[in-house]
Design brief:
The chain is of the alpha/beta class. The protein has six domains: about 25-155, DNA repair protein MutS, domain I (MutS, DNA mismatch repair protein, domain I, 3-Layer(aba) Sandwich); about 170-315, MutS, connector domain (Nucleotidyltransferase, domain 5); about 365-455 and about 600-620, no CATH class; about 490-585, MutS, DNA mismatch repair protein, Chain A, domain 3; about 635-855, Rossmann fold (3-Layer(aba) Sandwich), CATH 3.40.50; about 910-935, no CATH class. Helix content is about 45%, strand content about 15%. A seven-stranded mixed sheet has the order 13-23-24-25-21-26-27, sandwiched between helices. Strands 3-4-2-1-5-6 form a six-stranded mixed sheet, sandwiched between helices. Strand 23, helix 28 and strand 24 form a beta-alpha-beta unit. The longest helix is centred in the middle third of the chain and has 27 residues, at about 600-625. The chain starts with about 25 loop residues before the first helix and ends with a helix. Pfam families: MutS_I, MutS_II, MutS_III, MutS_IV, MutS_V. InterPro entries: DNA_mismatch_repair_MutS, DNA_mismatch_repair_MutS-lik_N, DNA_mismatch_repair_MutS/MSH, DNA_mismatch_repair_MutS_C, DNA_mismatch_repair_MutS_clamp, DNA_mismatch_repair_MutS_core, DNA_mismatch_repair_MutS_N, DNA_mismatch_repair_MutS_sf. One of its GO terms (biological process) is mismatch repair. Belongs to the DNA mismatch repair MutS family. One of its GO terms (cellular component) is cytosol.
Length: about 950
């Protein structure tokens, strides 16, 4: 809190009066002096205000109650204790209840959003009880009358609308989760809404895909029945994405009620025009609508038609792969360092949200992907049009959120201005597309956007432009946001308010001319108010007809006589109430304009969505032009052919650090070519990637996955050329992590994630695997890695990049027709290694681990000793291989798929034993035979 402030002494009775801000303390200090609060229950000795508080609190037991008192929101009892600990503000006392002190703290109105945000982030729900009347009105009812108050909204993580509480570049989803009949094998229906924009999504997923879907949606809050939330695994999925969970009665999930509610919100008699919905989806949508209505006390935003999601609509990426690829958040949880940060060139908050949504939900439909690519390509080529559109969009405010706030009754004059400016931007955008773009023939996607922008209401924009000043104030209660000349009554009220004496001077001149009394004056005092005064000598004409009928005598003084007129009394009353009247007229105008916007909410929502689409598309075109990206060819084949691919995030980091150019690499899986079109690796679905650490294996793996994501988003990609058969699923298992909270070691997490991949992938999936099996004993890990590659090749037939330090796996390239070996190129020079970051055909024969350890700064003694141990181990392994015929000959690693093996001939030991004739051996000959057999056993002649 800015500056040290004090609070006046708080004593009974509890009065309705503004409070002074509490001085802030560290949370621990505030909590340390707190005593356990009394249980808040009604009591006969409660003051009227406390009785009112307890009544409202009883109706909202699961929320912190913000009780409006003048310029503060006050909290009492256990709410005060919890809030003071969370916010770090002073916990004080106010009166007594049931014989005990009442804990209390408060936050000032002007800083309410800041404190509310902190409480919501800490997981609290807040019920906001506002004063519903002026305290002056309450005092008219008697000394003990209490100001009328009631809850106007319940604030939860998923029901925020204020800009100060929201991230302008991210959606804020509230998600309802439902499974029909509670059957474990039944699909899960998820319905999500961002009430700050009215955006709605609905779809179904399997239980195995739930964590990935929740990671994609990234909801702030999830509602579900108590029975569903009792499932520890399901609840864990919700918790791991950082969403708060809110149990609601199972009766909320009623498909018939959901269908009726959705029809009501969309203002239609049938839902067929918006697609088909399953009964579980309708049940989830119904619960979602009911929950919003309850928390917002019957108000709902103007919702948009639900978008379809789920397994058949988008490229599925599980939660672990999303985290590994850092699509919208880095490993540290920040946007910086993510793919989204690298590609975001949007100029509006709505456009940024749309781009993030596209990146989180890449498409599977090849037709829709290419429609987006056509639009991006058009704007790449039309540089002037792209520049003009982006310049125009920069002035576009977030009209979707402005419309929602107005619909909830929480709007401000700036929200009216936002709609006005948004409509103006839409008109300019439509004109630019129709003008500069029409001659070249707009692609389908841009044509659709242009049509939506052109549908903006010109009349509404004109009304808002005529009514609202260029730079309106934040709060409508302050007035001053309506233009002069918009309404004559308002102009007059303002003139009376701002220039009352000037107006009276004009009236005085009028009366002088009317009466002929040049000494006549219009004066004012606190007793009589405004009056007309003339000297005793000049008073006679005003006391006699006809002027006496108009000028009524009020007071005679020693030297003057005072009069009044009906006109003067009327004007005096109007001046006295001018401020109130002006403010009232502005509130009426605000309500009229807000109602007009609400009537157009559906069309305005489409305009807002079109502006966001245009910004996201132009952003991707700007990215492609500036970064030198190429248009990918996306089709229904199983090709994956990247030429000159680059990692978008690493490449930009190198540019920023001026650390040199990124080394590009090819990748061809399931298509001829790649890696210099080497025949040895053409048409292979699986690449085994070997090479030392720090050589760039992980970067190479990830960049190909990111290129695939960008292509299916409908973006140009960081490559010279790319042909990609649309993927159904993308898996990325790169890097090691544990999950100790659930009792899982690093190796267990690795195995769980690998199992999920092998159980869910198909021949249309792309799989990125790095170092499978390294978390256990060497032979165990090697066996698992070997079997995994065979499964990918023989059963799944998927496209895969498999990085490993198990050089023994490279033997699979000779045994499996769809497997190729590639390695990261390095050069050795004077006992040092130089990383070239280039992929080439072949397999690494060593991992250079000791050289990397030396680069990392290990002591020279450790490095030297490691070299000695390595030489000894290599020598020992060489002898073992000589005796055993090599690893490839062991039954464990023999590939069973080739035809039946030739019967093996007898071994030398078996031949020697067959040649022995025990009955003919002397003791000396028997001893020699034993020595000979032992020599054969040890590899001798």
């Amino acid at each position: 809190m800015a500056g040290k402030q004090t609070r006046r002494k708080l004593v009974e009775p509890l009065e309705d009066a503004p409070e002074v801000a509490a001085a802030e303390k560290p949370c621990a200090e505030a909590a340390s002096s707190a005593e356990p609060p009394p249980a808040p229950s009604p009591a006969a000795d409660a003051t009227p205000s406390m009785a009112q508080f307890l009544e409202i609190k009883a109706a909202n037991p699961d929320c912190l109650l913000w009780y409006r008192m003048g310029d503060f929101y006050e909290l009492f009892f256990e709410d005060a204790v919890a809030a003071s600990a969370t916010l770090g503000i002073v916990l004080t006392k106010r009166g007594k209840h049931l014989g005990q002190d009442i804990p209390m703290c408060g936050v000032p109105i002007h800083r309410a959003d800041e404190y509310l945000h902190r409480l919501i982030k800490a997981g609290h729900r807040v019920a906001v009880a506002e004063q519903l009347e002026d305290p002056a009105e309450a005092r008219k009812r008697g000394a003990k009358a209490v100001v009328k108050r009631d809850v106007v909204r319940v604030v939860t993580p998923g029901t925020l609308t204020e800009d100060t509480l929201l991230d302008a570049k991210a959606r804020n989803y509230l998600t309802a989760l439902f499974r029909a009949g509670g059957q474990a094998e039944a699909p899960l229906a998820l319905a999500s809404i961002d009430i700050s924009t009215g955006e709605v999504e609905v779809g179904e997923v399997t239980g195995a895909d739930l964590s990935g879907e929740l990671a994609r949606l990234a909801p702030s809050e999830v509602i579900a029945s108590d029975m569903m939330l009792a499932d520890a695994e399901l609840r864990g999925c919700v918790t791991r994405v950082g969403a708060s969970t809110t149990p609601v009665p199972g009766a909320y999930f009623d498909s018939l009620a959901g269908e009726a509610a959705l029809k009501k919100q969309l203002k239609v008699a049938e839902l067929g025009g918006f697609g088909s919905f399953t009964r579980p989806e309708l049940a989830a949508l119904g619960a979602l609508i009911k929950y919003v209505e309850l928390t917002q006390l019957g108000r709902m935003p103007a919702i948009r038609p639900p978008k379809r999601s789920g397994s058949n609509a988008i490229l599925l990426i599980d939660a672990a792969s999303r985290a590994s690829l850092e699509l919208v958040r880095s490993v540290a949880g920040d946007k910086q360092g993510s793919l989204l940060a690298a590609i975001d060139r949007t100029v509006t908050g709505a456009g940024a949200r749309e781009l993030a949504a596209r990146l989180s939900s890449p498409l599977r439909d090849v037709g829709r992907i290419n429609e987006r690519l056509d639009a991006v390509g058009f704007l790449v080529d039309q540089e002037n049009l792209r520049s003009d559109l982006r310049a125009s969009l920069k002035s576009a405010p977030d009209i979707a959120r402005a419309i929602s706030r107005l619909g909830f009754g929480r709007g401000s004059p700036r929200d009216l201005a936002a709609v006005r400016e948004g409509l103006s931007t839409a008109e300019r955008g439509a004109a630019l597309l129709a003008g500069e773009g029409a001659g070249m023939g707009l692609p389908l996607e841009l044509g659709r956007i242009a049509g939506e922008l052109a549908s903006a209401s010109g009349k509404l924009r004109a009304d808002l432009a005529a009514a609202i000043v260029d730079d309106p104030p934040h709060l409508k209660r302050d007035g001053g946001f309506v233009r002069e000349g918009y309404r004559s009554e308002l102009d007059e009220a303002r003139r009376l308010k701002e220039d009352g004496r000037g107006f009276m001077a004009g009236l005085e001149a009028k009366y002088v001319e009317r009466t002929g009394v040049k000494s006549l004056k219009v004066r004012h005092n606190n007793i009589l108010g405004f009056y007309i005064e003339v000297t005793q000598v000049n008073a006679k004409p005003l006391l006699e007809p006809p002027l006496a009928d108009e000028f009524r005598h009020r007071q005679t003084m020693a030297n003057a006589v005072r009069f009044s007129t009906a006109e003067l009394i009327d004007i005096e009353g109007r001046i006295a109430s001018a401020t109130e009247r002006a403010l009232s007229l502005e509130q009426e105008i605000f309500a009229e304009l807000a109602s007009a916007i609400e009537r157009e909410a559906g069309a305005l929502g489409r305009v807002a969505a079109a502006l966001a689409d245009l910004d996201a598309t132009a952003s991707l075109a700007e990215l492609a032009r500036v970064e030198g990206y190429a248009r990918p060819m996306v089709d229904d084949s199983q090709a994956f052919d990247i030429r000159g691919g680059r990692h978008p995030v690493v490449e930009q980091a190198l540019k920023a650090a001026r650390a040199g150019a990124f080394i590009e690499n090819d990748c061809a899986l399931g298509a001829a070519g790649g890696a210099g079109s080497d025949d040895e690796i053409a048409d292979n679905r699986i690449w085994l990637v070997t090479g030392p650490n720090m050589a760039g294996k992980s970067t190479f793996l990830r960049q190909n996955a990111l290129i695939a994501v960008l292509a299916q988003v409908g973006s140009y990609v960081p490559a010279r050329a790319a042909t990609i058969g649309a993927l159904d699923r993308l898996f990325s298992r790169v890097g090691a992590s544990d999950d100790l909270a659930r009792g899982r070691s690093t190796f267990m997490v690795e195995m769980v994630e690998t199992a999920a991949i092998l159980n869910q992938a198909s021949d249309r999936s792309l799989i990125i695997l790095d170092e499978i099996g390294r978390g256990t004993a060497t032979f165990d890990g090697l066996s698992i890695a070997w079997a995994t590659v065979e499964f990918l090749h023989d059963v799944l037939k998927a496209r895969a990049l498999f990085a490993t330090h198990y050089h023994e796996l490279t033997a699979l390239a000779r045994r499996l027709g769809g497997v190729a070996n590639v390695t990261m190129d390095v050069r050795e020079w004077q006992d040092e290694i130089v990383f070239l970051h280039k992929v080439k055909t072949g397999a690494a024969d060593r991992s250079y681990g000791i050289q990397v350890a030396k680069l990392a700064g290990l002591p020279a003694e450790v490095v030297g000793r490691a070299r000695e141990v390595l030489a000894l181990l290599e020598k020992t392994e060489s002898r073992k291989n000589a005796r055993n015929g090599g690893l490839d000959e062991l039954p464990l690693f023999a590939v069973s798929r080739p035809g039946p093996a030739e019967p093996a001939g007898p071994s030398p030991i078996e031949n020697a034993v067959d040649e022995l004739k025990p009955d003919e051996l002397t003791p000396r000959a028997a001893l020699d035979a034993i020595y000979r057999l032992k020599a054969l056993r040890q590899g001798g002649a």
